[in-house]
Amino acid sequence: MLIRHGGDLTENDVTPHEVWLRRREFLALGAAGVGLGLAGPASAIALKGAPSRYSTTEPKTSKADVTGYNNFYEFGVDKDDPARNAGSLKTSPWTVKVDGECARPGTVDLADFLRGNTLQDRIYRHRCVEGWSMVIPWLGVPLADLLKRYQPTSKAKYVAFETLHRPSEMPGQNRRVLEWPYREGLRIDEAMNPLTIMAVGLYGESLLNQNGAPMRLVVPWKYGFKGIKSIVRISFTESQPRTAWNQSAPHEYGFYSNVNPQVDHPRWSQATERRIGEFRRRPTLMFNGYGEQVASLYRGMDLKKFY
Ligand code: MTE
Q1: Which residue's CA lies nearest to atom 11 of ligand 1?
Q2: 91, 176, 225, best to mutate for ligand 1 pocket (most atoms within 8 Å of CB)
Q3: Beta-strand (E) ranges in the chain?
Q4: Residues 205-244: tens digit of each pLDDT
Q5: What angle do CA 90, 218, 49 make, to 5 degrees?
Q6: What predicted TM-score, i.e. pTM, was given to this entire model?
């Protein structure tokens, strides 16, 4: 449940203009019975989620690192580029198109897309294929709850996602680092797994642009690049969708991309990782430590082959 929680925010914590523009969306979430705190036009939207048994109790990575050390190539390829440049992205109005193999396709405003759902806290390990990791307190909604309303048909074997394509606001899209828009995909059972969430906030506030505002995917047992940001389109498909990184370097990035300490990336060993804020590297956990919840999804598959 969301409660009012705005008193301890400072202006430095937020991007006031962006957040003010997005007031409408979160009011809609509030109207859906989850309650909402608004600290005023010069502050972030404060959000509170219901606690979840899927959250880790490990120490969280600092908010400064979570919002200042990012990968978001639409705003540049260096880790500090997204925080510096993502202010140009306008996140309101924001429409989401849902199409493909489903009985009720449609294009809706973000507020309607989220309506009726209770925000949950999900403190998850976040593991990038580059060999670093964080622990991030996300706020989000189980993706399954959002997708079921569209009534996927029996042909819906996969779910494809697309980021906004708007080079005027995402200057990195003027360079062909990747084929734009950024695309990702999941098998339908992965998408419906209770660990998979659509995140709209972190650290008790609505997402900042550099983290993928207004909503981004979080799939904690997979490498971070599966967590596509600033999503505008979701498609149910019968065949495995193309994904941005797999298309640009198929020998480096697979479709499944489950965290696996035994399968190295050509450029980075995956045996260990550096938790941002720590000195020593730590061993990487199979499925990023979420095997109990997800290992059964891959029974019978050769996980080395299906990296
Ligand atoms: N989504 C889009 N649209 N563009 C990107 O460049 N980078 C991915 C993923 N989602 C990326 C993206 C990568 S490589 C990672 S590790 C995570 O976002 C980083 O998320 P964070 O910056 O919130 O930690």
Answers
A1: 72
A2: 225
A3: 37-38, 45-46, 95-100, 106-109, 120-127, 132-142, 158-163, 183-187, 197-202, 205-206, 216-218, 231-237, 272-275, 282-283
A4: 999 999 999 999 999 999 999 999 999 999 999 999 999 9
A5: 85
A6: 0.89
DSSP 180: S
Answer yes or no: are the C-beta atoms of 97 and 232 closer than 8 Å: yes
Q: Report the alpha-carbon distance of residue 47 to residue 38 in Å, rounded.
A: 9
Residue 185, token pair as written in the block: 């995909």
> pLDDT, tens digit, for every residue of 30-88?
434 333 333 333 346 999 999 999 999 999 999 999 999 999 999 999 999 999 999 99
Strand-pair category, 282-283 with 272-275: antiparallel
Binding site membership of 15 for ligand 1 (Cβ less than 6 Å):
no
Would you say 138 and 279 are in contact if contact means Cβ atoms under 8 Å apart?
no
Q: How far apart are CA 239 and CA 71, in angstroms?
A: 28
* Ligand 1 contact, 70 CB (< 6 A): yes
222 lines ligand 1 (CB under 6 A): no
Tokens of 299: 């029974």
Q: Which amino acid is at 236?
A: F
Q: Which domains does the chain have, with CATH numbers?
A: 52-298 (3.90.420.10)
Question: What pLDDT is attached to residue 65?
Answer: 98
